[in-house]
Amino acid sequence: MSRMRQQGWIRTLAKVETPAVRMVCFPHSGGSTTAFAEWAPAMPPGVELVAVQYPGRGDRFGEPLVDDVAEMSGRVVLELLRLPTCDQVLFGHSLGALVAYETALLLRDMGAEPRRLCASACLPPGHMRNRDIHLAPDDEFWTALYALGGIDPGIAENEELRELLAPTLRSDLRAHATYRPRSETKPLACPVSCYHGDGDPLVDEKQLTEWADSTSGEFTLRVRPGGHFHVATDVAGLVADVLGREPA
Questions:
Q1: Catalytic residue among 32, 73, 94, 171
Q2: Which secondary-structure segment (H or E) carries 177?
Q3: Among 3.40.50.1820, 3.10.350.10, 3.30.450.40, 3.40.1710.10, what is the CATH number of 10-124+181-242?
């Protein structure tokens, strides 16, 4: 049997021939690049939008899953360094915030620190709650995800869809649960922005200020409507805030 050809990690959602800025987006657990498809029309001139496609979903369905944040970020960095050089803004949502954080550290260590790191819907590194959820039996697993607001109810109630998505979700949640920041890591110098969806049951807003420890530069915290998946609410406004510009 022939082996499946493995795809790369980066997908371009809004192409710019000579970008001044590249926004790099990292999806949530179980998510794919489609989570940021609606962001493409909100990109201002000169800003390229790319997103990370983790194995096991979309056009990488069937590829071996990766359940280690450090490995994920290492693979992403190798591909980002091959792209035309420009300022980069990293935006990670939920699990993606940790992958984006580790990616920023690696880029910094290679002399290519991003212009800004944006962490969305995610507790500071090492603070995840419900660490054992990926080990729960199926019924308990889906009930917990549904109760926490981390899954679409339509998925939780569809048995065939649950069976299809469970391995990928468990792998991603395992990556999140087992991630530990390196104790010797020096803070970033770039600004770090934290985005919180008001009422998000997965994130304690009081702990989010600890993201400030990840940088010696400016730290900002934004609270937005939309709960855990606030990234689908007022996309133009969010993109403008991430880029430090007025909404188009």
A1: 94
A2: helix 159-178
A3: 3.40.50.1820
